[in-house]
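tool_call: predict_structure(chain=1)
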Amino acid sequence: MSLQALTYLVVGASFALYIGIAIWSRARTTGDFYVAGKHVSPIANGMATAADWMSAASFISMAGLIAHLGYDGSVYLMGWTGGYVLLALLLAPYLRKFGRFTVPEFIGDRYYSRAARIVAVICLIVISFTYVAGQMRGVGIVFSKFLEVDVTLGLIIGMGVVFTYAVLGGMKGITYTQVAQYCVLIFAYTVPAIFIAIQVTGNPVPQIAFGADVAGSGMALLDKLDDVVTSLGFNQYTAGTKSTIDVFCITMALMVGTAGLPHVIVRFFTVPRVRDARISAGYALLFIAILYTTAPAVGAMARLNLIETVQTGPVGAVDGNLEYAERPDWMRTWQATGLLAFEDLNGDGRIQYYNEANPAFADEAKAYGWQGNELVVDRDIMVLANPEIAGLPNWVIALVAAGGIAAALSTAAGLLLVISAAVSHDLIKGVIHPGISERGELLAGRVAAAFAILVAGYLGFDPPGWVAQVVAFAFGLAAASLFPAILLGIFFKRANREGAIAGMLTGLVFTYGYIEYYKGLFLKWAGAPWGENVASNWLFGISPEGIGVVGMCLNFAVAIAVSAMTAAPPRSVQSLVEQIRLPRTFDEGRL
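tool_result:
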């Protein structure tokens, strides 16, 4: 069976499975639609949380970042992993104990203010649409390559699938669909990793292969990588180039941003008890660890395989580069997507790949007639192309396609649902029309989800950046806006509505403005003279990916200062803060 036919079969079967689960678990009440009726078992919720958490950024882009950046890419691994632990320990149990459907509802009740709830909805929508832009880019990449269809058609298909199980099933349908998607994506990620680990090192366990010797070379994998990348003028793979403050800020922004992501937090509202929220957090961490401990090995082996494909002889020699006419099939197919590009600058018919940003190496290279780097590889293709680079069987390549789509769609569905809930439950029922019937609210939620899917599809057509970068921006926005309000709401009785509103707006506006100025995240079409994105221009040397930490600090400072200068919260609210931290004596049903 051809690769295309096999890919259609595997991806089509996964779509049929997701839609079948959505029909079986159709939401019939608002409780089903928002929090799956609070009847999900801890192990199922752990798998669903892992699928929600391991988005296209984790499946497609994280290993690609590590492959290209080496040590510097570890900030994403550390930040996202540590962030989940922070969420599980500091926030999830208390929010579940509070017993509301959404994060804006918690903020509105805790800060006794409709205005605070509306500001939280605004923050949530900005964060979620920024995040979903990265997921839809992942969908576009997978569809354009593996299904060999136009990106527009691919996105429409993906939108249709998400529409079916998000709008029809709500959180109940999404939860059980995400259980299936976790099984698909983790199998699709680990099977190729095992094959490639055996091929490169002879060891079938990727985590062990990461520290093993490359077969036949007598050199450790990382030593071998250091040797080949420095010989091409690139930075040493195991050495960092980012400043200490930027590494700290990016890692911290990803960690605290995790704890402010509404689509992850809402997962802890779907279990029956507070104890189950803690247990499901433990299961989720276990399920997440399988992929996150595999990613560094996948990134390293992908980088080595790529370079050894292009550099077929001694570096600098005439025969040291792959002849363009003899390039392997995987390069031909990925070149057709526009995500891998080759330009024969000196007309010698060879693919010359080195770091032209290194002046010393460029001078040496020019002695061989090189006139610049002739190969450009989009970092988002590394995981998806890895099985093809390694020459693995077609069924493995088809499996990776299904896994990439599952990762992107699972997170996109969760994000779209929280946007839907914010509009129908927090704005319409909470502010505009409190007397709306349950049936009317359910209909409003489905309409809002459908509209959100259309917006997400547009963002997929014109994404503002590569997957992990856009997701990092979403984490920074969450860190700067929602996280301080939630944390102060649980642990600081004196925090009041004026402080929360001022803090959220300060953090959101500052962080979004900084990202927009240096990256032109969503307003690039306006043609404004955005700031040059170089480290010398960054505030304190902090990149846009890490600026959320500064926004978070401003949020905390403004919220605490304004709270101190204004009236204290009502006694009933202060008692509520005390009660949600009590381990046993709190009556969960009352709130």
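agent: Residues 330 and 391 are 9 Å apart (CA to CA). Proceeding to next step.
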